[in-house]
Amino acid sequence: MRRSYQYRKLERHTRRPAELLLVPMIDIFTVLVTFLLMTAVFSRTVILQLNLPASQTEFREPPPGLVLEVMVRKDLLQVSDRNSGPLATLPNTAAGYNYDGLTEYLKRVKAKFPEKTDATILLEPDTPYDTLVQVMDRVRVFENGSGAATVQAELFPDISIGDAPLTDAPGPLAQAGAPSGGQR
Predict the structure, then answer these.
(1) pTM of the predicted model, to two decimals?
(2) Cα dist. 49→74, 90, 124, 157 in Å?
(3) In the CATH scheme, what is the code of domain 68-176?
C-alpha cells in the first residue's frame, strides 16, 4: 500500500526527534580507556639522591682516612684526597673528558677502600650539565661485562656536589684541592 506524499510529510513533522543515548558511548570509552592503559608502556624514571654539603661556619678537623674528591675542570678531571691533595690527573682526550680513565682509577681506589661510599664532585662554574651527569654516573657505578650479561657494580654512590676551587687563587687552598667557601 502506497502512501501519499502529503501523508508522509505530515508523518515526518509529527515524529519525535531521536534521543541521544549516552550509555553505549560511555561503555565504549570505558573499554577504550582500559585497553589503552593495559597496552601503554610506562617508562621508569630514575631519581638519584644527592647529599649537598652543609655550609660550614667553623672549621672541623676531618676524620682520618680518605676524603675523595673529583674535580671537573675545562681541560682535565682530577681525583684528589681533601687531606693529602691530588691523587690522579686525567687530561682530556681527543673525544673529550677521559671518563674511562676516571672509572679505572676509581675502581682501584674502591679496591683499597671498600667500605668508602661517599665522594664529592667539584665543578667549575661553566661546566655543562651533561658533563656533570656523566661524571656522576662514572663515580656512582661501573659496568662489568658486555651485551646482555652487563652488571653494574657500586663505586661511590653517596655523591655531594660543590664548586671547584679557583686554579689561579694564591695559597695552599687552590693547590691542595680544598673546596672554596661557595659550595652549594
Answers:
(1) 0.56
(2) 26, 27, 22, 9
(3) 3.30.420
